[in-house]
Amino acid sequence: MAEVQNGSGAEEKASTVAFTAVKPWLVVDAPKASDAVQFYKTAFGAEELSRLMNPKRKADHEIPLVLSAELRIGSAIIVVSDLIDDSSATVKSAVTGGVICLETEDIEAALAQAVDAGATTEGEISEGEDACCRGRVGKVKDPYGNIWLICSPSKKCADVEA
What does the angle CA 21 – CA 23 – CA 29 come to, to the nearest 5 degrees? Predict the structure, then answer.
C-alpha cells in the first residue's frame, strides 16, 4: 500500500483495492420487503434484477421473507431485505431504514410520483447553501421508514459550487 498524507499531516496507508460499485442495503420490518420492492417500482421506477427468498419460511408455509432483492434505479443498484434474525439472513440488524439520494432534473414530478405511491413528504423543497450539494432537494419518507432525498443532478451541484 502507498502512504499518503491526511489533512493533519499524518501519514496513512492508501488502499489499493478498487471497488466497482456501492450497493445500499435497505432492511425493512418483516414481512414487508415484497411490498417495499413494489413501492420502489411504482415510486421511483425501480427495475427488479433478482430476488432470493428465505427457504425456511417457504418450507414452513409461512409468509415468505425476502433475503435480498436487487433493484436498479437509474444507474444505481440497491438491495432490499426483510429483517430476519436467523442464520440464513445475509444482513441481521436491529435497525431498519436508511437514507438514499436520487438525482433528477424534475424534483417536483419525482416527489409527486413518490407521494402518489404512498410516501409522505418531509418538509419543503430546499435550495441554496443549506440544501444537499448546495442544489435543490426534496425529501420523502417511504412506508418502510427510509428517507429518500430527491436532489438536483451532481453536475448542477458542481455548477452551484463554482
Answer: 175
18-57 pLDDT tens trace: 666 778 889 888 899 999 999 999 999 999 999 998 877 6
Q: What are phi and psi of 131, to 5 degrees?
A: -85, 165
Cell numbers given for 116: 402518489
Reported pTM: 0.69
Residue 50's identity, in one-letter code, is S
How many Cβ atoms from other residues are within 10 Å of residue 146's Cβ? 23
Q: Which domains does the chain have, with CATH numbers?
A: 22-97 (3.10.180.10), 98-162 (3.30.720.110)
Query: Long-range CB contacts (< 8 A, 24+ apart) of 16-25?
Result: 21/77, 23/70, 23/77, 23/78, 23/79, 24/76, 24/78, 24/79, 24/98, 24/100, 25/68, 25/78, 25/79, 25/80, 25/81, 25/91, 25/98
- pLDDT tens-place string over residues 46-66: 999 999 988 776 555 577 889
